[in-house]
Amino acid sequence: MRTVRSIFFVWLASFMVSCSLINSTRQNEGDLMLTLSFNADDYAADAPIQAFVQLQNTGSESPLINQRMAMNSPAAPKELREVAFIVLGPTGTEVPLGARINLRPPTESDFTVLAPGAAVQRDYSLREFYSFDQPGQYTISAVYQNSSDPPSGVDSWKGDLQSNIVIITVR
Amino acid sequence: MTASRDHRPPKQAILGSFLLLFSSLLWACEFEPSITPVDWGTAPPASSFGVVTREEQVQEAIDDGEYQRAIALAIDLYGIDISDANGMPTYSTALSDTSVTYDDGTVEIGSDFFTTPGLLATTLGHEMVHTHQLAEGRWYLEEQGVIMNEVEAYDWELQNASANGLSQAEIDEITLLRSLYYDVLTAENQALADQGIYNLPLPAAPTPTPRSP
Q1: Are B201 and B184 in contact (CB under 8 A)?
Q2: How far is B44 from chain A (nearest CA, A)?
Q3: Which of A24, A100, A122 to mutate against chain B (most B CBs within 10 Å)?
Q4: What is the 3-state secondary structure (H, E, C) of B162-196?
Q5: Dihedrals phi, psi of A138, to nearest 5 degrees
């Protein structure tokens, strides 16, 4: 009975965090889509955990986007938080980012026109930034956002996107 | 017998004529102690005296693509305290636009921070502030604490901007980054930061076990 109750509370916590994320961000805003994937579903202890975040243009326009996709803490100001991960541990509590990230403002070369059908992708070694010491299932999602224009002042796409949610297992 | 007379001019007259001629020549040539004028209003470059500045040494390593050597030189020549870091900060090819301090005290610097020796030095100093926070039990886990940690690191950069020889553009960039973090502090925490108080009553990451020498 206690096990069933624990599972229910973990599920409830995950559901509530997911709902709050979806409320605060918009999935597939306009014609841009954010997809999170991993190099595996199941990881041995200490195995590298590689995440891939892909931003794809599924529409017919060609927006200017910030392709740097630099990772930062969810606590960082939005101007310096292009990609943030939300990692929930096996107990449903959020795993804090185990690093302090110093990021320079985006430059002209960080922006690119994303043609219809085109995509940009960046990979992240999550084990370097988050503790996966506790065995179990981790529920992970990513948020992409941009609020900056390039130094030339040309209008870029601004807003935020929520990725799909991925569950990985760490042994 | 007639006494012979000496018609030669006296020695004094010859000497006087020479002196007069020489003085006239000096006056005509406007002779001055130094023929090549030297403008001492601006100091000559240090390298002309055989001295290689710290900027030149670090820049040379950067230009040679020896980024790890540039880090070591910057730490030494700019006097950056790495006593709380977990080993020597390293150059990371994976972090182009980022410098990172991890919660075990290790530090990695991306290539974008090797633009100038001053920028490299101030970035190393920024990360060292985070290692001190970690060692002192002030590596906060909650949002306001994370932001306060960054404000402290940027304040260090601005306080040491002159000593690190930063350009005005570099100072402007650090000021902008600092303001982005400062603006998301609560009013109460902004007041603390204004006074140089960065300690908050928040949970912090455990201090890493000191590494063996």
Answers
A1: no
A2: 35
A3: A100
A4: CCCCCCHHHHHHHHHHHHHHHCCCCHHHHHHHHCC
A5: -115, 130
Contacts 24+ apart (CB under 8 A), A93-96: A93/A13, A94/A17, A95/A130, A95/A131, A95/A132, A95/A138, A96/A130, A96/B141, A96/B205
**Nearest of B75, B177, B173, B59 to residue B115 by alpha carbon:** B59
Phi/psi-derived region of residue B205, left when phi > 0, alpha when psi is between -120 and 50, beta in every other case: beta
State how far the Cα of A83 lies from the Cα of A126, in Å rounded to an integer.
12
Please state which CATH number belongs to domain A2-170. 2.60.40.2970
What does residue B209 show for φ and ψ, rounded to 5 degrees? -65, 135
Mutate to test the interface with A, among B93, B132, B150 (most CBs of A within 10 A): B150
Q: Which residues contact B32 (CB under 8 A, 6 or more apart)?
A: none
B100 forms beta bridges with: A101, B108
- Chain A residue nearest residue B144, CA to CA: A75
Which of A76, A100, A125 shows the shortest C-beta gap to B101? A100
Give the span between the Cα atoms of A130 and A128, in whole angstroms: 6
What is the ipTM for the molecules in this complex?
A: 0.80
Model pLDDT for residues A33-77, shown as the tens digit of each residue: 999 999 999 999 999 999 999 999 999 999 999 999 999 999 999
Give the per-residue pLDDT at A18.
46
Q: Domain spans of chain B? A: 51-194
A70 touches chain B (CB under 8 A): yes
B75-84 pLDDT per residue, tens: 999 999 999 9
Give the A:B interface size as CB pairs under 8 Å. Answer: 67
CA dihedral A37, A69, A26, A79 (to 10 degrees): 150
Q: Are A88 and A14 in contact (CB under 8 A)?
A: yes
**Cut 0.90: pTM above it:** no
β-strand pairing of A136-146 with A83-88:
antiparallel
Compute CA B108 distance to the chain's CA centroid, rounded to the nearest angstrom.
Answer: 21
- The tokens describing A109, both together, are 């070369």
**pLDDT for the residue numbered B50:** 74
